[in-house]
Amino acid sequence: QFLRETVTLSMLGGTAGTRSVVVTNPSPHAGAGSADFTVNQGTPTLTSLSQTTAPVSGSMFTLTATGTQFNPSQAQIVFDGTALTTLGGATTTSISAVVPASQLTTVRTLNVHVTNGAGLDSGNLAFAVQSPATTVTAFSPIAGTAGQGAFTLTITGTGFMAGATVDFGSTTGLAISNLVGSTSLQITVPAAAVMS
Fold first, then answer.
1. pLDDT of residue 20
2. Strands 17-24 and 32-40: what pairing?
3. What global pTM score does this model have?
4. Is 53 strand, coil or helix?
5. Which one of 10, 92, 163, 191 is at 20 to 30 Å from 147 when CA atoms are compared?
6. 3-class SS of residue 100
7. What does the alpha-carbon distance between residue 48 and residue 52 come to, in Å, rounded to a whole number?
8. Is 162 within 8 Å of 193 (Cβ atoms)?
9. How far is residue 44's CA from residue 75's CA, in Å, rounded to a whole number?
10. Helix, strand, or coil here: 101?
């Protein structure tokens, strides 16, 4: 007599679900026995991210997580507590999702992990939303004359932000009079700054 039973094992890759196990006796003996073998979804591990930084106020981007035991049909990247929609092409070792610009509005360090659902979560990796690098590439005018009096200086570069200040020689903390995006600003240089 054959008995039908259920046994379970955590998945180490592949697809969770039920596998039928059938034992059939050779001829001339009759009969076959079967049992359900349940393969449970394992806990994912997260080993790396395609990038670990992004500029504040930046555009949306695609983030790819690499690891093991991802469930291709259920796994999601969780970005600072928000589960992102998984893009097509997910595998047991790699999934991708779009991080929206709304997640990049403030400078901070946050956690990213992968979940298979049902409380099966990987460990966290850190991700930093950073202030952009500040560079100065050009001036207008490009030169002045000692004693010329106060004038407006236009500075071109990258990473300029509201509230920034400018040092001109020994004159520090000059306020920005006009900021155009993050690449151009204007200040008023006082006459004392170019006296000598």
1. 83
2. antiparallel
3. 0.62
4. strand
5. 163
6. coil
7. 9
8. no
9. 9
10. helix
